[in-house]
Amino acid sequence: MTTQAPLALIPTGATEISAAAAMIEDEHGGRVFVHGHLSFAWDATDTAGRRFAAVSLIRIKAATQTQVAAAFATSPLTVWRWGQALSAAGVGALVPHRKGPRRASKLTPEVNATIVVLREQGLSLRAIGERVAVSEATVRRALSETETETETETETETDDPIAVSDEVQAETEYPATGSDADAETGTGMQPEPVGRPEPVAEPVLEATPGLGQLPVLADPVARGAERGLAAFGLIPYAPPVFTPCGRAPLAGLFLALPALAATGLLDCAHTVYGELPNGFYSLDTMLCESVFRALLGEARAEGSARIDPPALGRVLGLDRAPEVKTIRRKIKCLAQAGKAGDWIAAMAARHVQDRPEQSAVLYVDGHVRAYQGTRKIAKTHVPRLKFPAPATVETWVADAAGDPLLVVLAEPGASLASELRRLIPQMRAMVGDQRRVLVGFDRGGWSPTLFADLHTAGFDTLTWRKGPIADIDEHQFSDHTHTDDHGRTHTWELADTPVSLDIADGPRKGQTFGMRQISLYNNARTRQMHILTTRTDLTPGEIRYRMGSRWRQENHYRYARMHFDFDSHDSYQASDDDPTRMVPNPAKKLAYQHVEKARRAMHSAETASDNALLAAHSPQPGTSVLLTNAMINTINADTHTAQTTLDAAITAHQAIPARLPLAQVHPSQQVLDTETKLIHHAIRIAAFNTAQNLARAIVTATGYTRADDEAHTLIRTALAGSGDIIPEGDTLHIRLDPLPAPRHTAAIDELCAALNDTNTIYPGTNLTLRYSTKPHR
């Protein structure tokens, strides 16, 4: 039997693309064979068909992207772009388009002049591009060319070495690099610099398009005379005065002022405290300095020693920032007024008024701050340490987005339920008289009596159920979805059932309180968890989402610990605790342990007695036992003894008072300075909300593609950046230096355009802030 020759997979004259594909291409067109079969063909003028064949080979996995690129005489990146275009717009996107002119034909001298004028007005690159009908990249290139021409003209018009920009001076010290070097030497290699340029004795001037020339790191205005007058209390404070300065360090902090003004920190401080006593630094200056320092990661007063005082002073409009002792003295002056609680409450009411949608839900949680000093502080359970230690307890209230609103320092040993009951009047004053708000908290606030009190006060409850209960039947569970504010859809398997809780204490003792229960499974589906609420108009999916969003408050704690020294001791002062305050009696707990021990002994004795009586009543077959009273008394002797011991233990336990004055339990116990801590918390609240508002602006007002993941990092980088400070009449122009990545600079430029719309006035002046960024050269 003859063997048939196999079919040739690669036709004669074909070029092998891969083991499965081959191609023939000549002056008439091209053909692609897959496993010997003709699969694609195109004419010599059919460029779209040729590109479609290349992309199709990759899609059917007949060849890799690298093999296709080599066979079609192009790069893998080009083949990838063909695939993206085909997926986005179909085969029509593969048709080659006529290339435009190599230069930007739209950049006429009139358009360039218009771009410069609009840039001086503070418009972003995107807004300028829309105004003159060009792309954002074209606007950036036009500004870069205009800036280069301005610097060149400045260099040729003057022979003064101080009048040249630092970039032009650097070019005289370093050999040409990049494209200029290629043109002169014919090679793309960059020569190594001989050495860094010698520092000049005086600041150089930086050319700024439309804004003149600025001295780099200019000395601030001398304020010696005002400091002398302030030492004798002859002036209320030194007003901010800004000197034109180029490349000023920390100029990015100016970005925080619009968001800081929105927190109400300064306005509420003036309402509550008025003004500081006469001196050099005003209340606005001290608070702005504290917030700026916190945004730089140095929230404690000692952190001012790690920040350059003249650099921060330029941002404050002074010759230098205040020192550590000055900061402590001013904070102590505010603490003596004893109005920190009113200040935080006023800021919270301002926040709720400005963001009513975020205050529809309030999250309440306790935060334990461990103490490591030598003071005799009351011990409490520290969750992070998992054992009792000296600590103070704070109760925080946050809105639906996790932004902190209110904080109070709890009494030692106070439960979250008691703190919630104490916070009801303050929360009502914060949200208004008529508004019904959902209050969420964890199991630490479990109390049916509290739920009823919150309902009576006009609040709805949202919490996890505490204690074991019977599981809900599986047939009652169904899928429920909820779409959050970011457009993400969440799906859970939930059961919605009504429940009734028994009230065991208070004036409602013996009554029942009805609630709504949302049940769900844990991730491993090993047990059921139950959410309780009094809100009936929300879907089960939204109830589940709101309960899970309580972790945003924990995110605030974590972020503040990392960046704002949240758990630091801002004051070393302490005072004696109230000796008449009633506290739990530790002897009561010890007596209860004796009662429990006696009960266990009683149970063991009763078990032994029952076994002995059962043995006596059940003799062996063929035998008989005569039970007498003496035998029964002997069997029950241990039971009688245990009962006597138990009765004595219960009597002793009942005779011990449950609470005693603090002086009898813990004499000489102290408490840390609460007023100073609350003042620093008010500053940290403003700093966190400032960073949060700027990050949200990056997400909503810019086209930054990774804003959800990198907004906070980008804001911290921008705030620590440098820039130009340019006072012009009643305007203070802040022109920020570009960030390392062009996409970061573009995002900050769009943020500047959004901040310009706020028309923020610099505190203590009549200067309107205007922001812009320098383009990448």
Which residues form runs of ≥5 with pLDDT under 50?
A: 151-203
What's the overall average pLDDT, rounded?
A: 85
Q: What is the multimeric organization of the chains shown?
A: single chain
Termini separation comes to 79 Å
Largest sheet: 10 strands, mixed
Q: How would you classify the helix and strand content by structural class? A: alpha+beta
User: Number of helical segments?
Assistant: 26
> What is the percentage of strand-forming residues?
15-25%
Q: Outline, from the CA principal axes?
A: flat
Count all strands and give the number. 24
What is this structure's SSE topology?
Elements: E1 15-16, E2 21-26, E3 29-34, E4 37-43, H1 47-59, H2 65-71, H3 76-89, H4 109-120, H5 125-132, H6 136-157, H7 166-173, H8 178-185, E5 205-208, E6 212-215, H9 224-231, E7 245-248, H10 256-263, H11 265-273, H12 283-295, H13 309-316, H14 324-335, H15 340-354, E8 361-370, E9 379-382, E10 387-398, E11 404-409, H16 416-431, E12 437-440, H17 448-456, E13 459-464, E14 478-483, E15 489-502, E16 512-521, E17 528-533, H18 540-548, H19 551-563, E18 574-576, E19 582-584, H20 586-617, H21 629-635, H22 637-655, E20 659-661, H23 662-665, E21 670-672, H24 674-701, H25 707-719, E22 723-728, E23 731-736, H26 742-756, E24 768-773
Parallel strand pairs: 8-12, 12-13, 23-24
Antiparallel strand pairs: 1-2, 2-3, 3-4, 5-6, 7-22, 8-10, 9-10, 10-11, 13-17, 14-15, 15-16, 16-17, 18-21, 19-20, 22-23
